[in-house]
Write a structure and sequence with these properties.
A: mainly alpha, 15 helices, B: alpha+beta, 25 strands, elongated, Peptidoglycan glycosyltransferase RodA (chain A), Cell_cycle_FtsW-rel_CS (chain A), peptidoglycan synthesis (chain A), cell shape (chain A), peptidoglycan glycosyltransferase activity (chain A)
Chain lengths: 388, 681
């Protein structure tokens, strides 16, 4: 009997991770593959677009890779947290993100590339609190709207109002920077949360009316900066000033269009090498994909983004609690809007807005925020059943 | 949860729709319109820079350079890069103006593209081509710019070739000058558009203009790949420029220098003189040996673009309009030098060659007496003596008689106008066709010309005949002008008897250019054929092979028999030894070189006389025709003849070394080494 003694040892970490009951097994692998594909593509594109001028040629690529590693760790950490517990932390996360936005306004804030939205951490690192604010806002909105009214499947009016207040405060702080692009993402997150949560159509109509009136007021009372109006005019007709405000859209169209079906090959893009498109490792990174990988490559980016979005929608649908569904749904709204506006502006169907392409663009904080969003989605998927 | 799921479904449809929109637009941009963007990408990514060809030289008959190239450091500015600096280039220009020591407004003007209301000097070239701002920078200045490129974005200092004139002012009007090509010129020279680059200069006057195509060569092309800031990343395509051909002229720079000096002396000797021209032709070939006009100017003024003030100065009365070549554009009454035409007209009208003619002190033409020079009667004489002593009354009489034969004041339907038509046969009244641009035609005032003039001026004359000249202070002059106006109004269309008399001695309305007179004399003392003089002799490739030689075309024949021609030539041969120019040639070794010719003193209303001397030498077998004209120079024998003497002295080496040893112009083209340099023998 002695030799049949059972040794009670915990299985190794790897074995546990691979076990049938492991949460890793319950991750959405397809989404992770898509995110990995986008990240790898992004790294290549950042290299191609920065090698001619970045310190040591690979300086920015290394930093980008480091950002991605940090992002993956954040993703894993978030994924391991029970999202239902996260509901309790939502107000805290929200307040911390608001504090971050507040810090930007204080003398700690820094201006990089004309936008006052940074906090310098030293050592060449800086964070953009507005990226985290997207996560903070979507969590608080999901928390508020997850609690349905008595005997109904619609959120309570008070919660709707609170959600709107939270959104307005966040957007207000972002507009102080000013960062119109991020404010629009926040607006989309809010609108998405409200719609998905099942608010009455009259709320939707009312908010749409208010938004319409707001847009009208912005234009009518000329509340936009002149450059923003110029960008919009240039979007409507890029030939107005092809060397001025229309320059970006004209050049990015030329870069993408000249990629044709198969592209000029990695590092083969003359427009990219010549740096004709500005910000081509961040906001305009899609032009590098378009020029060097052609239609095939840029379509691949769109398809990979589509995989992420559709898998996220699947997670939202399959989640059995309102909070999880709301979080997943608003993440879809966020990423879909940001991706569409970003790619759209490079191919001339959207006005120029300073938004990065999710998972692809260079940029630490946005990489973190995007991967945290993936972590949230995975957390929700892992615990989609109410009684798990 | 059902409601949420339904709304998620809506969201899913929306997301799919957005993805489809993106994919569709990408298909449209990259696949459907891809080719179009490839083309636009090439346009933005590359800059085509035209590399100007080295312009050919202009050489004299023995291969000495009249115009050559020297390398110079040229500072140019790339306007597109300048425009991208934050202040639109103002700062860079300010710094540049300090280095170059030129006012910043001047630099600003030079780089502004020319447009109807833009003041000169503006940039006439392509907007993408660097604008040369200074062609005379020192190495130190160039280094200041090149070593601090970050302070001078878009500014370069490169070695270019620019024109140099070893002869200084000599023949400046004949050689011409270069200026940037204008839009209008590009349009006009449709076929050559491709070979023009924005920086290319085009000949604007003189030989540089006429032989622009031969001299220019073909500019090369360099397609450079550039980045957004216009920094060159590499050369994509390159075609080397083809240097322009050399033009060898028949000009002899030594003779040219002699002529320039003689004109300068003549101008100095006559303070009233306001211009002069000298022409030396080779009688045996019809080629031009020297062509000068005073006052002159230093053609270096054109280098690097002329300033507005400099250009005004070249055309101003104060400077004597040095840009204008008196040799081809100076139109003056020829005075007695014209009598070679008039004597021929007499012969054609039937007056005997060997007859005797009375030369009274004055002759009544109609109701007005026309006097000999100083009113002296010279008795009866042959035509020979009439030419040597320059009798006027013989010609008055013949011209008046012919005038009456044509019907006088009531002309026949087809008047013969023998004097005017003979003058035409001598090549007067139309350009000689010399290979220089903008030549004047002179004027033959025949009956048709009178009518035409009257048609254009009668309205003013008639008005003046009524109103008079109240603005004229001198009462006598005003009265005279009023009478003249009335005469012009009522019968200005008529060739009056006095007009015909004046014409016969080269006075009045007849105008000729020095080149016209020189080639008429060349025909007379040569072979009787009228030629279109040529300056260019041969076109030679940079490698020394002769592309072609320029022929001297024969364009007419004098209306004289060989006997008549030699008779007139013989008469002219005595002018310098026994005739009107004997004083000017006193002491000249006629036994060594016998000079013949004719003086001319033409009255100009309100000004001093125009001084002429048309000559040839040696008389027995002429080699050269030399014509000098001095505007407001006084008598022909006083001013022009001594200048001609000085030229012969220079050519034959009477007082110093001979410009042309043995009095023979260079008869063989210079030989070239394969590298294009002239082989000195």
């Amino acid at each position: 009997m002695i030799d049949r003694a059972v040794t009670l040892r915990r299985p190794s970490l790897v074995r546990r991770a691979m076990g049938t009951d492991s949460i890793v097994r319950r991750f959405d692998g397809l989404m992770l593959v898509a995110v990995l594909g986008l990240s790898v593509l992004g790294t290549l594109l950042v290299w191609s677009s920065t090698r001619t001028w970045a310190p040591g040629a690979t300086g920015l690529v290394k930093k980008h890779l480091l950002n991605q590693v940090i992002g993956v760790i954040l993703c894993m950490v978030v994924a391991s947290v029970d999202h239902r517990a996260m509901r309790a932390y939502a107000p805290l996360v929200f307040l911390v993100s608001l504090a971050g936005l507040g810090l930007v306004i204080t003398p700690l804030g820094a201006t990089i590339n004309g936008s006052h939205s940074w906090i310098l951490l030293g050592g060449g690192f800086a964070v953009q609190p507005s990226e985290f604010a997207k996560v903070g806002l979507l969590l608080i909105i999901a928390m508020l709207l997850a609690q349905p009214a008595e005997g109904s499947d619609r959120p309570r009016n008070l919660d709707v109002v609170l959600a709107l207040v939270a959104a307005c405060v966040t957007m207000g702080l972002v507009m102080l920077q000013p960062d119109l692009g991020t404010a629009l993402v926040l607006a989309v997150i809010t609108a998405g949360g409200l719609v998905i949560s099942g608010v009455r159509k009259r709320w939707i109509i009312l908010l749409a009316t208010v938004a319409g009136a707001g847009i009208f007021a912005v234009f009518h009372f000329q509340m936009l900066e002149p450059y923003q109006i110029a960008r919009f005019t240039a979007f409507l007709d890029p030939s107005v000033d092809p060397r001025g405000v229309g320059y970006n859209s004209t050049q990015s169209l030329i870069a993408i269009g000249s990629g044709q079906l198969l592209g000029k090959g990695l590092l083969g893009g003359g427009q990219t090498t010549g740096r004709f498109v500005p910000e081509q490792h961040t906001d305009f990174i899609f032009t590098v994909a378009g020029e060097e990988f052609g239609f095939v490559g840029s379509l691949a980016v769109v398809v990979l983004l589509g995989v992420v979005l559709l898998r996220a929608l699947k997670i939202a649908r399959e989640c059995e609690d309102r909070f999880g569904t709301l979080v997943a749904g608003t993440i879809v709204c966020w990423l879909a809007f940001q991706a569409f506006v970003n790619i759209g502006m490079t191919i001339g169907i959207m006005p120029i807005t300073g938004l990065p392409l999710p998972f692809v663009s260079y940029g630490g904080t946005s990489t973190f925020a995007n991967l945290i969003a993936v972590g949230l989605l995975q957390a929700i998927r892992v615990r989609r059943r109410v009684f798990d | 949860m059902m409601r949420m799921r339904a709304r998620l479904l809506v969201l899913q449809v929306l997301v799919l729709a957005l993805l489809v929109v993106l994919a569709g637009r990408l298909w449209q941009v990259q696949v459907v319109r891809g080719q179009e963007f490839v083309q636009r990408a090439t346009e933005t990514r590359t800059r085509t820079v035209l590399v100007p060809a080295v312009r050919g030289q202009i050489l004299d008959a023995s291969g000495r350079p009249l115009v050559r190239n020297k390398t110079a450091l040229v500072v140019s500015v790339d306007r597109t890069r300048l425009a991208r600096t934050p202040d639109g280039g103002a700062g860079v220009l300010a710094k540049l103006s300090k280095v170059l020591g030129r006012p910043v407004q001047d630099l600003q003007r030079r780089i502004t593209p020319c447009a109807p209301k833009v003041p000169k000097p503006c940039w006439t070239g392509s907007p993408y081509q660097p604008v040369p701002l200074d062609e005379k920078v020192s190495t130190r200045e160039a280094l200041q710019i090149l070593e601090r490129q970050e302070e001078f974005p878009g500014v370069t200092a490169e070695v270019h070739s620019v024109r140099e004139y070893p002869g200084g002012r000599a023949g400046a009007q004949m050689l011409g000058y270069l200026q940037p090509v204008t839009e209008a010129e590009l349009e006009k020279r449709e076929g050559l558009k491709a070979s023009f680059s924005g920086v290319d200069l085009a000949g604007r006057d003189g030989l540089e203009y006429v032989y622009d195509d031969e001299l220019r060569g073909k500019s090369g092309l360099r397609r450079v790949q550039v980045d957004r800031m216009g920094k060159a990343l590499g050369v994509e395509e390159q075609t080397a420029p083809v240097a322009g051909d050399t033009i060898v002229t028949s000009i002899d720079s030594r003779v040219q220098a002699v002529v320039e000096k003689a004109l300068a002396h003549a101008m100095k000797a006559q303070p009233s003189a306001d211009g002069a021209a000298g022409v030396v032709l080779d009688v045996r070939t019809g080629r031009v040996v020297a062509l000068a006009s005073a006052p002159g100017y230093d053609p270096a003024i054109w280098a690097g673009g002329i300033s507005a003030r400099g250009y005004q100065w070249l055309l101003s009365d104060k400077s004597g309009k040095p840009l204008v070549s008196r040799a081809i554009n100076g139109q003056f009454a020829p005075g007695s030098t014209f009598k070679i035409s008039s004597v021929s007209a007499m012969l054609r009208a039937g007056y005997p060659l060997n007859g005797t003619y009375d030369c009274p002190g004055s002759y009544m033409v109609g109701d007005r007496a026309f006097n000999n020079f100083r009113g002296q009667g010279l008795g009866t004489m042959s035509l020979h003596t009439a030419l040597v002593k320059s009798c006027d009354t013989i010609f008055y009489r013949a011209a008046y008689e012919q005038y009456l034969k044509d019907g006088g004041r009531n002309p026949k339907k087809h008047p013969k106008e023998i004097f005017a038509n003979t003058a035409r046969a001598f090549g007067f009244g139309k350009p000689t066709g010399i290979d220089l641009p903008g030549e004047s035609s002179g004027r033959i005032p025949d009956r048709a010309w009178k009518k035409d003039l009257w048609a254009r001026t009668s309205a003013i004359s008639c008005k003046r005949s009524r109103t008079g000249y109240p603005e004229e202070k001198d009462a006598a002059r005003a009265a005279f002008l009023k009478r003249l106006a009335l005469e012009n109004c009522t019968e200005g269309f008529l060739l009056r008897p006095g007009d015909s008399a004046n014409f016969s001695i080269g006075q009045g309305d007849v105008l000729v250019t020095p080149v016209q007179l020189a080639r008429a004399y060349m025909a007379l003392v040569g072979d009787g054929r009228l030629r279109s003089p040529r300056i260019a002799w041969a076109q030679v490739r940079p490698d020394g092979t002769v592309v072609k030689t320029f022929d001297v075309p024969v364009v007419g024949k004098l209306p004289l028999s060989e006997k008549e021609r030699l008779y007139i030539k013989g008469a002219l041969s005595d002018v310098a030894s026994d005739g009107t120019a004997a004083g000017a040639f006193a002491g000249f070794p006629m036994d060594r070189v016998r000079v013949g010719g004719k003086t001319g003193t033409a009255e100009v209303w309100g000004k001093k006389d125009t001084s002429w001397f048309a000559s040839f030498a040696p008389t027995d077998h002429p080699q050269f025709v030399v014509v000098v004209m001095v505007s407001q120079g006084g008598m022909g024998a006083e001013t022009a003849a001594p200048a001609v003497r000085e030229i012969y002295e220079g050519i034959y080496g009477i007082k110093g070394p001979a410009a042309l040893p043995g009095g023979r112009p260079v008869s063989r083209l210079p030989r070239f080494a394969p590298d294009g340099t002239v082989i000195r023998e």
